[in-house]
Amino acid sequence: MTIKKVVILTTGGTVASMYNQKTGLLTSGKLEGEKLVEMCNLPDDIELTVESVCQVSSTAMDFETVIKLMNRIKEIFEDDSVSGVVVTHGSVTLEETAYFLGITIADSRPVVVTGSQRGPLELGTDALLNIRQAVLVAAEDNCRKMGTIVVFNEKIFPARHVKKVHAYNVNGFDSPGFGYFGYVDRDEVYIYQKPVRRETYQLKEPIPIVDIVKFGLGSDGRFIQHAIDSGAKGIVLEAGGRGHAPRESVGIIDQALEEGIKVVLTTSCLEGQVYPVYDYVGGTADLEKRGVILGKDYDSKKARIKLSVLLATGIETIEEKFKN
Q1: Residue ranges of domains in the chain, CATH in brackets
Q2: Which helix (H) or strand (E) holds 227?
Q3: Distance CA 33, CA 161 (A)
Q4: Residue 118: its pLDDT value, please?
Q5: pLDDT tens string 143-182
Q6: Is 188 exposed, middle or buried (0-12, 13-18, 19+ CB in 10 A)?
Q7: Phi-psi region at 286: left, alpha or beta (left = phi > 0; alpha = psi -120 to 50)
Q8: Smallest Cα–Cα separation from 302: which of 143, 171, 158?
Q9: Is CB count within 10 Å lower at the N or C end of the chain?
Q10: How many C-beta atoms surround the C-beta of residue 275 within 10 A?
Q11: Can 317 be counted among the known catalytic residues?
């Protein structure tokens, strides 16, 4: 019997939560990683090492913490005998951490991010099964060269396209318009598709401030102005449809561009990409002519992660990198 080595890095979240008897609510990240993994009844042919990176809610995750997580994974992969790494994480920012790891870790071995919608001691918990199946995926040779992936509710998702789609249901994640790579049925891992390309980058500078500004009916440029005034180096615009900004915001967008701030345009739609179709002021074609980067089919959160990373690499051809 071949023994596979998998390292589990825990960060807290609902998946490690426990009830607080005083408040009657869950305390996120309360359960230590070793105790959590002991509850999962993991296979004997997988050698596990558990480390706690932090024990916080996912809303407390920040770039400092995910960089620490990234560096630890790179250190772990210096050991050629390790098959893969599992990261347990709160669900709210899980997709952002997964994508950050996906574009900063170049190793071919799987990094599998998972979490849960219910605490491990709640009735009908999904925590233990998600962790168990994430470990199985991390140990699976066929999951190499897929980058960072997310395992949730028996499905295997690409970090690039996975989204949290439900606030509390155990079927909390999906990849609208793209589907999933495969699934786990009991202890069997099935992979039916893999990414055709991977992109990874090396951080050379600190992560800069990059803000998201979302447009709605009657929006103007006030929040863009605030991002400029607060020192943002990048701004991601989440606009409607093909990517159309209100006319009232265009002057402030011009100001941001003149000050050297990178501005990326995304769509609020679950499927489809920003694309120049209309000729009015604030339309996608108009914004592109002004110097706004078209964010293709990236959602605003993924575009923010990518722009942050690209700015920290010193790469000048950011426009080209958003075409992938």
Answers
A1: 4-191 (3.40.50.1170), 210-321 (3.40.50.40)
A2: helix 222-229
A3: 28
A4: 94
A5: 999 999 999 999 999 999 999 999 999 999 999 999 999 9
A6: exposed
A7: alpha
A8: 158
A9: N
A10: 15
A11: no
d(CA 191, CA 193): 6
4-12 and 82-88 beta bridge pairing:
parallel
Catalytic residue among 14, 114, 125, 148: 14
Q: CA separation (Å) from 245 to 213, 214, 223, 236, 292?
A: 11, 9, 13, 12, 11
**Cα dihedral angle (168, 169, 173, 177), rounded to 10 degrees?**
-120
Complete DSSP assignment for 238-303? EEBTTTB--GGGHHHHHHHHHTT-EEEEEESSSS--------STTSHHHHHHHTPEE-TT--HHHH
- pLDDT in the model for residue 18: 81
Show the low-confidence residues of the chain (pLDDT under 50): none
Pairwise CA distance, residues 54 & 144, whole Å: 27
Cβ–Cβ < 8 Å for 100, 309:
yes
By the 8 A CB rule, do 4 and 139 touch? yes
Amino acid 259 reads E
Q: What is d(CA 311, CA 265) in angstroms, rounded to the nearest whole number?
A: 16
Task: Give phi and psi for 244, each to the nearest 5.
Answer: -125, 125
Helix (H) or strand (E) holding 226: helix 222-229
**Pairing, β 210-214 against β 234-239:** parallel
Distance of CA 65 to the CA centre of its chain: 14
For position 1, what pLDDT does the model report?
56
> Cβ(117)–Cβ(165) under 8 Å?
no
